[in-house]
Amino acid sequence: MASKRNGTLYLGVTSNLPYRAWQHRTGQIEGFTKKYRCHMLVWYEHFDDIQDARACEYRMKTWKRDWKIALIEKDNPVWRDLYPDLNR
To answer: Which GO terms describe its molecular function (predicted)?
Structure first.
């Protein structure tokens, strides 16, 4: 999740991405995403195993910001909000 292009970034793990992204977008969850208005889904990766997803999240939280931006821009160079695509 991002506040805007090159803005504040948030990453997390969920077993229900459409619902969790909606919660963040609508301010249903108190905390970081609400405070910093991280409402745009700009990148996601699917995992079959939640433990693999958590391990990836843990690794990515140690990454430099530039690495995260490069990952986003590899597949989403204009930082398009991907949320509308989730329910297609």
So the answer is: endonuclease activity
Instruction: Give pLDDT tens digits for 10-64.
Output: 999 999 999 999 999 999 989 999 999 999 999 999 999 999 999 999 999 999 9
Q: What does the buried/exposed string (b/e) look like for 6-20 if buried means 16 or more CB atoms within 10 Å of the residue's CB?
A: eeebeeebeeeeeeb
**pTM for this structure?**
0.92
| Angle (CA) 9 56 44, round 5° | 50
